[in-house]
């Protein structure tokens, strides 16, 4: 495996969609695997994390880190199906940057598994589960040679953007966030400055966005403008609206590629080498 790789296990936003119209780009919600040298970790626990579970078991990864952008359903409702969490021989550390003063991330993950919403409680997970809350804006070392920088994002109930740095390469995960037209988000500009790859919330088109103000999402056009202003190499168009079919996404991909050579639309199971 290459030194730096990203694999998209879920790229859809809002709700998973399993239909013939979503086969090419995928219907699972947000989940991204990061490989930084010998280290593997995951960002977000949407429905895509169920398939990522199989990789953890096959590779016999005993310690896993899960970084959550936020805890809306489409980013955590795969967690009860994260098989390694039920294995007492494994350690899983969950980190979130928006809940330190709101009861903490453990409380949120436990609540979604309470009766009558789910039949299996959090306590059934026998792994060594560790929960670490921090304030978005803090930086920390996930491993000795992997630095994580964070910034708060503009999203209802709060969200955190992550910059992963390892041996001179950088990948930034920016979802979910809503832009203010004509006013570039300085937090995001600071976070993505000079990055090799930015994964950005591109839920809506420019035509759809005015009718969705306040819903907490952005457009690929805004992501592109931010990336070009910050000297980013590549933009991954991410968090696809469930109403956007494969044909619709094909049109976005064509339009985005014409607009800037650094744009591409991510698909479920796509693997990117960061070089």
What would your notes on this structure say?
The protein is of the alpha/beta class. It has a single domain, classed as 4-Layer Sandwich (Metallo-beta-lactamase, Chain A). 19% of the residues lie in helices and 28% in strands. The strands form two sheets. Strands 6-5-4-3-2-1-14 form a seven-stranded mixed beta sheet, with helices on one face. It starts with a strand and ends with a strand. The model has no long low-confidence stretch (mean pLDDT 96).
Structural class by SSE content:
alpha/beta
Query: Helix and strand succession?
Result: EEEHEHEHEEEEEHEHEHEE
Helix count equals 6
Main sheet strand line-up: 6-5-4-3-2-1-14
Distance between the termini: 13 Å
CATH architecture: 4-Layer Sandwich
Biggest sheet record:
7 strands, mixed
According to DSSP, the number of beta strands is 14
Q: How would you summarize this macromolecular structure in one to three sentences?
A:
The protein is of the alpha/beta class and 275 residues long.
Task: Give the topology, please.
Elements: E1 4-10, E2 31-36, E3 39-43, H1 49-59, E4 63-68, H2 73-76, E5 91-96, H3 105-111, E6 128-133, E7 140-143, E8 146-153, E9 159-166, E10 169-174, H4 186-192, E11 197-201, H5 220-229, E12 234-238, H6 246-259, E13 263-265, E14 271-273
Parallel strand pairs: 3-4, 4-5, 5-6, 10-11, 11-12, 12-13
Antiparallel strand pairs: 1-2, 1-14, 2-3, 7-8, 8-9, 9-10
Defining traits:
28% strand, globular, seven-stranded mixed sheet, single chain, 275 residues, alpha/beta, Metallo-beta-lactamase, Chain A
């Amino acid at each position: 495996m290459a030194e730096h790789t990203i694999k998209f296990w879920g790229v859809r936003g809002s709700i998973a969609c399993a239909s013939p119209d979503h086969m090419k780009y995928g219907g699972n919600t947000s989940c991204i695997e990061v490989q930084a040298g010998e280290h593997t970790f995951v960002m977000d626990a949407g429905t895509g994390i169920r398939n990522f579970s199989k990789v953890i078991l096959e590779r016999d990864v005993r310690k896993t880190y899960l970084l959550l952008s936020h805890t809306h359903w489409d980013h955590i409702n795969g967690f009860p199906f994260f098989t390694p969490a039920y294995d007492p021989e494994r350690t899983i550390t969950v980190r979130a940057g928006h809940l330190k003063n709101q009861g903490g991330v453990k409380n949120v993950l436990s609540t979604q598994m309470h009766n009558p919403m789910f039949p299996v409680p959090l306590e059934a997970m026998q792994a060594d589960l560790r929960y670490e809350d921090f304030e978005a804006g803090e930086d920390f070392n996930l491993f000795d040679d992997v630095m994580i920088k964070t910034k708060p994002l503009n999203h209802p109930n709060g969200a955190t953007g992550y910059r992963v740095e390892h041996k001179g390469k950088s990948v930034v995960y920016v979802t979910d966030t809503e832009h203010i037209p004509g006013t570039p988000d300085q937090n995001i500009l600071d976070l993505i400055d000079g990055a090799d790859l930015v994964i950005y919330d591109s839920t809506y088109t420019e035509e759809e966005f005015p009718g969705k103000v306040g819903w907490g999402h952005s457009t690929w056009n805004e992501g592109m403008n931010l990336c070009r202003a910050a000297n980013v190499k590549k933009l991954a168009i991410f968090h696809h609206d469930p109403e956007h079919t494969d044909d619709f996404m094909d049109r976005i991909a064509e339009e985005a590629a014409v607009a800037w050579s650094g744009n591409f639309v991510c698909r479920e199971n796509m693997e990117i080498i960061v070089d």
